From TrEMBL:
Coiled-coil regions listed in the entry: none
Keyword field contains Nucleus: no
Protein species of origin: Gossypium harknessii
GO MF terms, alphabetically ordered: pectate lyase activity
Top-rank lineage group of the source organism: Eukaryota
Record-stated family: Belongs to the polysaccharide lyase 1 family.
InterPro entries found in the cross-reference section: AmbAllergen (IPR018082), Pec_lyase_N (IPR007524), Pectin_lyas_fold (IPR012334), Pectin_lyase_fold/virulence (IPR011050), PEL (IPR045032)
Keyword Cytoplasm found: no
Keyword list, A-Z: Glycoprotein, Signal
Stored PANTHER family: PECTATE LYASE, PECTATE LYASE 18-RELATED
The name this protein goes by in its record: Pectate lyase N-terminal domain-containing protein
One Pfam family cited in the UniProt record for this chain: Pec_lyase_N
Amino acid sequence: MEVTKLRLVSLFSFSTLISRLWANVAEFDDFWKQHEMEARKLALKAYEPSPENITNQLNYNVNNEKTIDGRRANVHIAYGCSITLQLVHNVIIHNIHVHHVVESHGGLIRDSKDHSGFRTIGDGDGISIFGSSNIWLDRISLFECQDLLIDAI
């Protein structure tokens, strides 16, 4: 009897973990599979076991492909929406306020000029990071998010 309960708990825990690993992506089409492979290669390339080398590299050489910069402005992302960084690299987010984020329903999301993909529900995180590398969050104000402030998977 105890072994059966242990197996059921283990199976439930494992299935819950697997569903969280896909980070609300309803289906991986070829476009997302390609981005996943690129993100995986970049993450392995960016791995540095020494924290001193990482901080020195960030301080001396910051290469960015996308910057969300709220300096000299009062930028608020609020009342329902959040920031999702999925399978990207070299992103800087600086000096913004994210608050009152709520759970949202999924739908088609346009993520480039020539692609739209289906996304399942958003769980109410202020910032969600999935399969990304070289992300810099600086002076971010986060409060009143329904789930958590930041999820990094």
